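Good day; I would like, with your permission, to put a structural problem before you. A protein sequence and the structure tokens that stand for its backbone fold form the material at issue. I would ask you to consider whether the tokens describe a fold that such a sequence might reasonably adopt. I set the record out below, with my sincere thanks for your time.
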Amino acid sequence: MAINRSSSSTSALASNRGPSNSSTSHSRSNATTTGKRRGIISQNSKPKKPAPRQGYYGRPKCPIGTMFASRKECSVAGVHYPLIAGISCSTSASRSDIDPGAFSIVLSGGYEDDVDDGYTILYTGAGGQSNTSVEPTTSTSTTHQPGSQVENQSIKHYFNHALRLNLQTEHPVRVVRGFKNKSEWAPTEGYRYDGLYRVVKCKIIIGKSGHQVCLFQLERLPNQRPLEDLPKSLSD
């Protein structure tokens, strides 16, 4: 009988003092789950690293004269990130960790007012182009060929504004020449990294199509591999 009373008392005490171990374990499990749902990070969790910024000034990891079969290869190598745009840049509105300006440009024959003399470049700004051929609608109108200017450019354009900022900051611009560039300095195929240039002048002119264009003069920095020694094709 004593044994029975002791057993009953123990059971009663256990019942009165709180939940059993299994209940406590279940309660903690729920608390942990609730904590995870509320965004509590455990000690073993590691914060995700921010995505790397695209765009930087100066030399890339590849040497001058590196050939690329496509714009995508050029982008992956970090020489010129955009796959279509000819100017890679950032403004103060989009980046707070770096001076605003242009990082790189591509010469690909897309603008009729470009002049490529190798060590000196007259580079046309962005905007005001016709992307498709437009047939004349009257006897006095003209046909617009793809790439021709059909309206005025503005220095306030995102890309033009960024490239003009390099005049003030003096940050160099990486130059890539493509096979479509109408110049003796262009490769016969693919795209080629040709080194660093600096923007020395920016002016507004009336272009070949009779519209206002932004023209940037760039000069190649000294002490770089001569352009005459650079490969012309992917197999060179």
